[in-house]
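hey so i finally got around to running the thing on that chain from the lab meeting. sorry it took forever, my laptop kept dying and i had to restart like 3 times. anyway pasting the input first so we r on the same page abt which one it is
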Amino acid sequence: SELYAYGARSFSIWSEDGKRVFDSGSEFERITASLIPDNFNGQNDENSFDNRSDDKGPEPEAVTVGIINGQTFAFIGLERVGGLMVYNVTNPQNPQFVQYLNNRDFSVSQEDLEAGMAGDLGPEGLAFIAADDSPNGKPMLAVGNEVSGTTTLFGIDVIELTAE
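ok and heres what got predicted. didnt touch it at all, straight out
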């Protein structure tokens, strides 16, 4: 008869001695509500609206960090609604939101979604590939998606990621 919400809606940064120096709070939900309002807090196996708010919201599932041009970036996969949040975390006390990227097609039918026609669903694993290790000499991000069974390789545009 009561509603409780525990974690899984944000990302936190902790100091070496275990003190929390930052938490994104409700920022993921504010961003996704603004950018994909018709599918806010939707599920990863159906195109829906707000059937995750009473669970874990967008459910950040995976995170990796990478250094690009001397700056540190966090890439965070949102398992349920899908997509990636990118933050410049060079200053861990004051991370800066850079981009939300979601190549999921929310317009497909349930049948097409189940047939794998909706793009990436359920980012589960992330791996940052530094420019020195990349086949094209530019940083990249590999994303494994649990629900769609897809793996996507994103090129990172360094110009867009530079801090002001």
